[in-house]
């Protein structure tokens, strides 16, 4: 069997076991349906805190809002003590409206003039991507007579000594070589801008690249101090990853077999023998597998732990110890990793014919394929017995479009579904839920509900109706 | 034997019989082809020289030799390029063997490590860094001399004209009944197999690969061999997997009992060969022979072995180490808060020892303190107290954890007046106490 069984924790499992509950939700709210589990967030927050504690580090956790538009998740986090990383004017408004105070918000990403103004007006920390952005912000602060705005400098283009560690080019951040110019500007605009730290964010799972960046940023922070500034923190962004699969052996087997299928040595396991980046040339496998490493034994807080234990390429000491030595706080911005196991997407099966299963949702409603994450959905049968599987099937979406396959991979289900059954795409809260959903063809976008426990009972409400004020928690 | 240059010393390596008492086979003579005795230390010397020779002959000043290699091919090419006054660049996913990395840097090579996989993946972007690199190398006038070891037929050729015939000659004109080789670029196994089959079509060729997820330097995994252009599954009668454990077991046996200083690849070949032969040995009625390749030398893999078998490097525990402290000793470590410490420093001539790294110390520290990085301090303590018992000491680290351990150790070593700064220099800073840069 070539199953890729998802990792499912008890909260989601208990929900999946309640077929009638999910069936009724879908009957009432339509297919597809997104479910978020705000109360599950705490476990992930605690895991990150535990890693901080183990390395004796202080600093702040910022939830990268872009991973999910949900209000319920945001409000739940606002009720706790972590911060939020907002990357648009809309996200900033959302965060302020959810109850985040400005000292718990950092503004990142491309910034319009309006975004900069609201950030400055509210007094949130602005992570500046360039000299020009910093100058524009200072101009806004001066022009509107606003108080000094806390800023961090996002840096990029780090160079390694000895071995040249190559990194993808980034759109974001100022070249580290231009730090002196940025500091000149900060000195000149000291009445308007207050440096609180430096930041980097690399889109890679590679530790060596991050180690080079982190060590370079420490040197940059020391340079800031030498100039008389008082930076507090190093923000290392996100990218800690999630482990999606229950078993490494399944992942190993599937990826090995895919190579064989592409070489024509076994039956195809994907639609039209799609190679996910691999191709055959004269009997040799070329290209590289362009999928997310769905089985990642070291992910999330454990990945952060590994990073902090990695020796700095120059100074040799573990990066976590260097941060401590230099007395800097560590700020992190996990998105996907904070949302691990915090949601799922449900869809109704509309047709079953041979190895083809039609669903009332499309590839944009659960954008696993777009992000290269491969895992099997879970069948939620509605009444009656199902023919025992395993069933290898292709999942077709509801768009009148040849390319609308939920995944080009043949998925494997333990039982053969029937029309009317539900398929659950679990662990999809981070980036796969609403990131790409569209109204194309007048198909509905999934409604989103929050499922939570209050007073010992499972309850649900529409996402926008959720506030973390459950009567039982309050002490009269 | 006189040579005009070192490349003439490549090849003509000895074929050495392994003592039957070591391998325990009754009916089979097992021979090791000692490629580790090539001048640069490995079987790759042959392929590197054979591939590079025509490129170097046509090289223009300023050209760069480049290869995707994190091991022996890179080493050989770095030396060959250097002999021709050209730079060498090694492109690699990750240099996993630190000794080789250091050696390449020492030889003047540039090492480019490719970026890791993207976290926010775009699966439509199949333009992976490696593909981009290949395109860049292939474009004409790029100034790159790319030896392309995984696809270059001259890699195989080197063994068709060298290694293969040498084995046949040393076996008095006969091919062995088995030939066992680890598959890296598939160059040596393919080339040797071709020659041996011309002499004996019945020779059984055993290709060894690593298990998925395992790592043996120079051996591809079961998946990775399919990415090798020179790899043709039909070359091998049998493919078998070996593990890092096998490789180290073999390395130990050949080194300790046969005087052959092999690296892990040769060790894996030995274990793979014996495993295959044991299955048939008892059924044989006539004398047979088998040859395996010892690819390279042991010295580059000390840390590889140490990571996996630390006990092989076991030393007696060192004196005066914080690792030997008991919980009771740790609890008894005298700690002092920031305010009390400030008073105490004012009243005594206590020595303040800052255990942090020198850069952090130089950026900000307690006035009058000295910097002894914890690793250095630990080394000093093995020999004894590095300061007088009469001088009070305040130990300082970031949060007061390490300093407490050292305070406990110093106390055990007989220092009467040592304190650890509770909460460390971070508490000191947070209390608003003075920090200086000098």
TrEMBL record, chain A:
Domain called Orn/DAP/Arg decarboxylase 2 N-terminal: residue spans: 42-248
BP term (GO), one: lysine biosynthetic process via diaminopimelate
Highest taxon, organism lineage: Bacteria
Organism whose genome encodes this protein: Actinoplanes cyaneus
Cofactors demanded by this protein: pyridoxal 5'-phosphate
Name of the protein in its database record: Diaminopimelate decarboxylase
Classification via PANTHER family: DIAMINOPIMELATE DECARBOXYLASE (PTHR43727), GROUP IV DECARBOXYLASE (PTHR43727:SF2)
Keyword Phosphoprotein in record: no
Keywords per UniProt: Pyridoxal phosphate
One of the record's GO molecular function terms: diaminopimelate decarboxylase activity
From TrEMBL, chain B:
The protein, known as: Rhodanese domain-containing protein
Pfam families listed in its UniProt record: PALP, Rhodanese
PANTHER family per UniProt: CYSTATHIONINE BETA-SYNTHASE
UniProt keyword list: Pyridoxal phosphate
Species for this entry: Actinoplanes cyaneus
Biological process according to GO: alpha-amino acid metabolic process
Organism domain of life: Bacteria
Alphabetized InterPro entries for the sequence: Cys_Synth/Cystath_Beta-Synth (IPR050214), Rhodanese-like_dom (IPR001763), Rhodanese-like_dom_sf (IPR036873), TrpB-like_PALP (IPR001926), TrpB-like_PALP_sf (IPR036052)
Ranges where the Rhodanese domain occurs: 346-437
Stored SMART domains: RHOD
Keyword Transmembrane: no
Cofactor: pyridoxal 5'-phosphate
Keyword Ribonucleoprotein attached: no
């Amino acid at each position: 069997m070539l199953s890729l069984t998802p990792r499912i924790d008890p909260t989601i499992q208990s929900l999946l076991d309640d077929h009638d509950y999910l069936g009724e939700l879908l009957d009432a709210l339509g297919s597809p349906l997104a479910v978020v589990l705000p109360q599950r967030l705490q476990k992930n927050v605690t895991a990150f805190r535990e890693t901080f504690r183990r390395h004796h580090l202080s600093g702040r956790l910022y939830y990268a809002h872009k991973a999910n538009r949900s209000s319920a998740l945001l409000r739940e986090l606002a009720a706790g003590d972590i911060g939020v990383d907002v990357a648009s004017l809309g996200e900033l408004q959302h965060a302020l409206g959810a109850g985040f105070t400005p000292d718990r918000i950092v503004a990142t990403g491309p910034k319009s003039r309006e975004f900069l103004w609201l950030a400055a007006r509210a007094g949130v920390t602005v992570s500046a991507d360039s000299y020009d952005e910093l100058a524009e912000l200072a101009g806004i602060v001066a022009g509107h007579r606003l108080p000094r705005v806390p800023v961090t400098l996002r840096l990029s283009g780090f160079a390694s000594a000895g071995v040249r560690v190559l990194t993808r080019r980034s759109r974001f951040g100022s070249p580290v070589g231009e730090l002196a110019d940025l500091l000149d500007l900060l000195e000149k605009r000291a009445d308007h801008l207050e440096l609180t730290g430096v930041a980097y964010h690399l889109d890679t799972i590679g530790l060596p690249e991050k180690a080079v960046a982190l060590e370079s940023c420490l040197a940059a922070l020391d340079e800031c101090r030498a100039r008389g500034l008082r930076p507090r923190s190093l923000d290392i962004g996100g990218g800690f990853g999630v482990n999606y699969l229950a078993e490494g052996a399944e992942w190993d087997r599937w990826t090995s077999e895919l190579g064989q299928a592409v070489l024509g040595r076994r039956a195809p396991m994907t639609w039209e023998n799609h190679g996910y980046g691999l191709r055959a040339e004269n009997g040799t496998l070329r290209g590289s597998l362009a999928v997310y490493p769905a089985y990642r034994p070291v992910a999330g807080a454990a990945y952060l732990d590994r990073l902090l234990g990695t020796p700095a390429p120059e100074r040799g000491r573990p990066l976590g110890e260097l941060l401590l030595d230099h007395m800097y706080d560590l700020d992190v911005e996990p998105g996907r990793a904070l949302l691990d196991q915090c949601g799922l997407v449900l869809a109704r099966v509309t047709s079953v014919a041979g190895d083809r299963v039609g669903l009332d949702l499309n590839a944009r409603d659960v954008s696993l394929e777009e992000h290269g994450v491969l895992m099997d959905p879970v069948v939620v049968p509605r009444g009656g017995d199902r023919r025992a599987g395993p069933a290898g099937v292709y999942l077709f979406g509801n768009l009148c479009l040849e390319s609308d396959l939920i995944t080009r991979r043949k998925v494997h289900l333990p039982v053969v579904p029937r029309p009317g059954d539900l398929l659950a795409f679990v662990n999809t809260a981070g980036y796969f839920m609403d990131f790409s959903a569209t109204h194309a063809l007048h198909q509905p976008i999934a409604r989103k509900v929050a499922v939570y426990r209050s007073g010992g009972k499972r309850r649900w409400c529409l996402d926008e109706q959720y506030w973390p004020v459950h009567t039982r928690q309050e002490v009269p | 034997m006189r040579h005009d240059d070192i490349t003439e010393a490549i090849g003509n390596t000895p074929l050495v019989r392994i003592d039957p008492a070591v391998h325990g086979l009754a009916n089979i003579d097992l021979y090791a082809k000692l490629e580790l005795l090539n001048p640069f230390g490995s079987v790759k010397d042959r392929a590197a020289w054979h591939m590079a020779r025509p490129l170097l002959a046509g090289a223009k000043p300023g050209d760069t030799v480049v290869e995707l290699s994190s091991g022996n091919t890179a080493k050989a090419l770095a030396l060959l390029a250097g002999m021709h006054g050209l730079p060498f660049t090694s492109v690699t996913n990750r240099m996993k063997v630190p000794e080789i990395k250091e050696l390449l840097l020492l030889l003047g090579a540039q090492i480019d490590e490719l970026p890791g996989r993207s976290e926010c993946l775009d699966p439509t972007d199949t333009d992976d860094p490696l593909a981009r690199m290949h395109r860049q190398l292939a474009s004409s006038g790029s100034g790159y001399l790319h030896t392309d070891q995984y696809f270059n037929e001259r890699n195989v050729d080197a063994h068709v004209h060298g290694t293969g015939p040498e084995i046949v000659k040393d076996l008095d004109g006969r091919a062995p009944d088995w030939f066992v080789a680890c598959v890296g670029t598939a160059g040596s196994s393919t080339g040797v197999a071709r020659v041996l089959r011309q002499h004996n079509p019945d020779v059984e060729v055993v290709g060894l690969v690593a298990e998925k997820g395992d790592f043996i330097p120079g051996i591809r995994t079961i998946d990775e061999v399919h990415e090798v252009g020179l790899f043709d599954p039909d070359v091998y009668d049998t493919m078998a997997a070996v593990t890092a454990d096998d490789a180290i077991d073999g390395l130990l046996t050949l080194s300790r009992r046969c005087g052959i200083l092999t690296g892990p690849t040769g060790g894996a070949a030995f274990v793979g060969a014996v495993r295959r032969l044991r299955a048939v040995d008892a059924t044989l009625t006539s004398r047979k022979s088998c040859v395996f390749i010892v690819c390279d030398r042991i010295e580059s893999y000390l840390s590889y072995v140490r990571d996996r078998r630390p006990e092989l490097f076991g030393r007696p525990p060192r004196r005066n180490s914080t690792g030997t402290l008991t919980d009771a000793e740790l609890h008894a470590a005298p700690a002092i808060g920031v305010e009390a410490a400030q008073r105490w420093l004012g009243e005594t001539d206590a020595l303040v020892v800052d255990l942090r790294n020198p850069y952090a110390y130089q950026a900000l520290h307690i006035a009058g303190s000295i910097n002894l990085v914890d690793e250095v301090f630990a080394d000093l303590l093995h020999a004894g107290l590095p300061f007088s018992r009469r001088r009070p000491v305040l130990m300082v680290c970031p949060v007061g954890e390490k300093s407490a351990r050292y305070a406990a150790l110093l106390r055990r070593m007989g220092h009467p007046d040592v304190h650890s700064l509770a909460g460390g220099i971070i508490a000191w800073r947070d209390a608003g106490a003075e920090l200086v840069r000098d």
